């Protein structure tokens, strides 16, 4: 598994737990669960998109600078 994806997913889960704890006295349980779930889904989707787009661009960089060609005498 990609390290960026793993770290982003773990960070999203930690952020969702912190949000769940912070909003404990402000809003109800259903709203907290919904916000935490949306945050986790957004972070996982963003990490997946970032890791997939990063791997796509690395293979397309083969024509950045052409090599020297030898001329026939």
First-to-last CA distance: 52 Å
Q: Give the biggest beta sheet.
A: none
Number of strands: 0
- Low-confidence runs (pLDDT<50, min 5 residues)? none
Class by alpha and beta content: mainly alpha
The overall average pLDDT, rounded, is 73
Order of H and E elements: HH
Describe the structure in your own words:
The protein has 73 residues and is mainly alpha-helical. It has a domain at 3-53. It has two helices and no strands. It has helices spanning 3-22, 29-59. Helix 1 (3-22) packs antiparallel against helix 2. It is rod-shaped, with a radius of gyration of 22 Å. The protein starts with a helix and ends in a 14-residue tail after the last helix. The mean pLDDT is 73.
Q: What keyword list fits this structure?
A:
73 residues, mainly alpha, 70% helix
Précis, in short:
The chain is mainly α.
Layout of strands and helices, then pairs:
Layout: H1 3-22, H2 29-59
Helix pairs in contact: 1-2
């Amino acid at each position: 598994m990609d390290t960026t994806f793993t770290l982003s997913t773990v960070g999203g889960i930690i952020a969702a737990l912190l949000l769940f704890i912070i909003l404990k006295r402000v809003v109800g349980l259903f709203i907290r669960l919904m916000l935490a779930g949306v945050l986790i889904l957004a972070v996982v989707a963003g990490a997946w998109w970032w890791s997939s787009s990063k791997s796509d661009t690395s293979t397309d960089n083969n024509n950045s600078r052409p090599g020297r060609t030898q001329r026939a005498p």
